[in-house]
Amino acid sequence: MGSNDDDDDSPLGSGLGTILRFTGSNVPSRALYIGEAFVSASLFSVTIGLCFGSVGAVIFPNTCGPLVPFLTGSSIGYTFGLYEHYSSVKRNMLVHARHYPTLLAHAMWSEHKRVVPKSVMEASRQQEEEDNPQESSNVTTSPPLLYQPEVENVPLDQWVFLGGLGRLTWSMLASQNCKANVTAIEEQKRQRLVDSILQEHEGKNDDNSNDD
Question: Does residue 161 have a pLDDT over 60?
């Protein structure tokens, strides 16, 4: 079954994207990434800055006071917030690339006109079948514009790293627009799992009633 690692989003950075997707606004992936990064970094900056400032006011009241520790903590917090957001988006992109390769490839084409080699998609489908032997691929057919002939024969989650920082960042931006779709797919899978459990329990209850 698909992974739920997408739920590991930092709540500080993903809140803005959740609100925008809830309102139905069509926001470009780059603007969404920058907005979430700014919110995440700002909240980390204020939080850590206040902590450092409070400690400085108590420990160094007559020397540096709260101002210098606050500025230092704010700088550290802002940097940490940016890194945390980058790591979160990168982690989600890898989840999408491994479990929903066709969806991510389509987003890369529709958003940034970046094509994924056909051999990479075939390797990704094979990997997906090995990971989910009881489930079919999430998409059976794909537009031919998504692919171009290339020698690389590795899954999509490995292919994004072979192209350097450029390919990695384009993939991360494309994955921003896959979140809502992945959430919907995971909810459907979870509902099917709940239905199967309920049917199993109902069957056991019927068997117990017949035995009585």
Answer: yes
